[in-house]
Amino acid sequence: MTMKKAPIIALSIVLSATSLFAQPVSPQLFSIKAGGTYFYPAEESMKNIYGNGSGWGGEINIKLWRFIDLWMFGNSFEKAGSLPYTREPTKISLITYGGGIKFRFTAGRLSFYLGGGPAACYYKENNAIGQARGTDPGFVGQLGLYVRIIGGLILDVAADYASIKAKPKTIEADLGGARAAVRIGYVY
Amino acid sequence: MKNNKTRLRAKSGAFLAGVGAIACAAFAYVLMGMKWPVGSNVGYSVNANSAKVAGELAAVQSAAGSWSAINPSGFRLTYQGSTSVTSESCNGQNTICWENQGASSTLATTYTWYSGGTILENDIVFNEAQNWSTSGGDYDVETVALHEMGHVVGLDHSNSGIMTPYYSGIRRSVDSDARAGFVAMYGGSVGGDGPARDLPPSVKLTSPAPGTAVSGIVTVAATATDDIGVQRVEFFSNETLMTRDTSAPYQYAWDTSTLFNGSFTLKAIAYDTIGQTAQAQIAVIVLPHAPRNFSGIKKNNSSTLLEQYINVLSWEEHEKNKDIRGYRLYQRDGSDWILLAEFDAQTFVFLHKNVDKRKTYTYIVKAVDAGDRDGDGAGLDIQ
Amino acid sequence: MRLSKFRKILRLTFVAALLSAAEAVMIKAPLSDLVEGAEAIVLGRVQSLQCTWSLDQSLIVTIVTFKVQEVLKGPVSGPLIILQIPGGLIGDIGLKVSDTPSFRQDEKALIFLKMLKDPNSPKNSHLAAQNSRSAYEVFERAQGKFAIDEAGMAEVSGYELPYRDNKAEKPLPLTELKTKIKALLRRAPSSRGKSHEK
């Protein structure tokens, strides 16, 4: 489970450099966002059995210092599928949560951000074979942007990638993957 | 008496053929003047075609047995089987048959072909127009056969015993007079009335045991004994002749793999040297045959987080199985076989779930008949 | 059954058997049955004998040419008739058929007759076929022929041997036999014959 650190570090440096030329705006001490997500599982078997799907998610950001925020998030994903040979029904539920540090750069109404940190996934899979349940850690990286629409109301789009390896029984699976989000929020 | 002597001298004039009947001084028997060579084993065939009586074959054989028992090494009659021939011509086959010769006083006719003093062939024709009996009534088949066979051995009519020319009731043994005539031609000992008969043989099926269930190649064996000798043993399966065995041990390799499963009657018929028979029979069950095309494959049925492998097994019904109740699937467990599942007769697939991905599994599937008996198994290994 | 002295003497003598000594068993036919069942009853002499194969070569038969001297029941075809008797000897091969009467050259006999059935049958001889209208067989075989010896005694001669415990087999004068036959014929509505005596 290796993060692709180099591109993220590079982007951080670029954004940091541009922040030197950013215009100061509202303090943006706190923001909250919630909306729909679309999940692309990383695990091959999960792709085959369940495929991609939509979910829900939200996050809270708290300004720490200048352009550094503390970031916490939570996403949920639930989907039904069929076992590969017997075609019996199966269902998986994922609640991914975590947080970390986010770098945010605001230019006028637009704010860009990039962050990363630890994550965890609570999972439950249920089918004729049995039930698997548990929580396992991983990490997540995110980048996105939001635009201030009116007052503190914002429209946010983001993409994140998580990698969370779970092995409740005999199979180890990466319950992470890529996720795209479109959310509404408010910045204070 | 004079007249009688004159009459006799007149009768000794020119005759049609140079064959003379010879009367013996001490007995009343009369020899025809022709006979079979000493030591002859004369075979005969019977066309038991009388529509008026049953059991005529056995009666004829019994009569032949009576003559044959006197001195079998000197002369005997041996039954060679049935025939459809009804001809009295000199065709090399000694035949006994029934033929309608019309209402008359003739019960039976013997045709004796000869050359010089040697009999070449005898054919006996029973008159089907008469009323025949084998159960103690008139006219008794065995009695008439015994008389006619007296001519076959070379005896002519006499004034007493079995060789009197007119039927006078049931008489099923060779009297001492006729016996003496036989002995004069073929040797042996002159005894009292009714010489000891060549007894019929006895037979017993020794394998398989009655009522057993069998499959594959089955050894069918019989023991047969006779006071003179066993000529052959015939083996039958459901009245179909399987084989003839002419020497002990009497046995036969019965291949059940080409038969439908179910009940079978096995029979053995022993024949002695003069054609007398004995039979024994048992019932056995042929088990169902192994199902065809038993095959399998291991399939991965795991979900994202739960592992499952399945051995998928399938088979087909055997074309020679009938009245199958279902199938049983067994899995090897060490040196034992454990019943894994049981199915009805229409099920030919089984998913053995939660098998170990790395382990080899051994299976046997068997058809089960209406009597709840497992048949032969088809085996399979899945790795 | 007790034997008379006569019969005991007979047992000590050789009797030459004729070609077709009886080799069978029959039901005893009383004289009345013979008289009623025969198509003709004749008295005469054997003129000649000839053995021949049947048309299909399966049997040997003896053809007896019989000169009829008196017909007690008839009619018959003429003064000369032929009798076909199963059995005979040709070269080295002979056939003896049970219950068939035997005949000798010049023998005098009283015979009960039936027309030969289907003279053209392959089981019959060519002589029978050629003389179908005068071809006969002996009715009831050996029981249907009485040999007449020089002393005028008649006896059933189909069986050559002294078995005669049965009184019916006892030889009797020809005249007595003829009287019995005629008496039986009078009882039954059957035709009488003419004498052809020479």
Describe this structure in a few short sentences:
The complex is a heterotrimer of chains A (188), B (383) and C (198). Chain A is mainly beta.
Question: What is the topological layout?
Answer:
The complex is a heterotrimer of chains A (188), B (383) and C (198).
Chain A (H helix, E strand, L loop, with lengths): L4 H15 L10 E12 L2 H6 L3 E13 L2 E15 L6 E19 L2 E18 L3 E20 L2 E14 L6 E2 L2 E11 L1
Chain B lengths: L1 H10 L10 E2 L6 E2 L8 E8 L8 H13 L6 E8 L12 E5 L6 E10 L2 E10 L13 H13 L1 E2 L19 H11 L15 E6 L5 E2 L2 E9 L4 E8 L2 E6 L4 E6 L6 E11 L4 E10 L5 E9 L8 E8 L7 E10 L2 E9 L4 E4 L8 E9 L4 E9 L1
Parallel strand pairs in B: 3-4, 3-5, 5-7, 10-16
Antiparallel strand pairs in B: 1-2, 2-8, 6-7, 9-11, 11-14, 12-13, 12-15, 15-16, 17-18, 18-21, 19-20, 19-22, 22-23
Helix pairs in contact in B: 2-3
Chain C lengths: L4 H7 L12 E3 L4 H7 L2 E14 L6 E14 L6 E7 L1 E3 L2 E5 L10 E8 L10 H5 L4 E4 L6 E4 L4 E4 L15 E2 H14 L11
Parallel strand pairs in C: 4-8
Antiparallel strand pairs in C: 2-3, 2-7, 3-4, 5-6, 7-8, 7-9, 9-10, 10-11
Helix pairs in contact in C: 2-4
Topology as H/E string of chain B?
Answer: HEEEHEEEEHEHEEEEEEEEEEEEEEE
Helical content of chain B, roughly?
10-25%
Structural domains of chain A: how many: 1
**What is the CATH domain class of chain A?**
Mainly Beta
Determine Rg of chain B (CA atoms, Å).
33 Å
Helix content of chain A: 10-25%
Under CATH, the topology of the largest domain in chain B is which?
Collagenase (Catalytic Domain)
Please report the first level of CATH classification, the CATH class of the largest domain in chain B: Alpha Beta
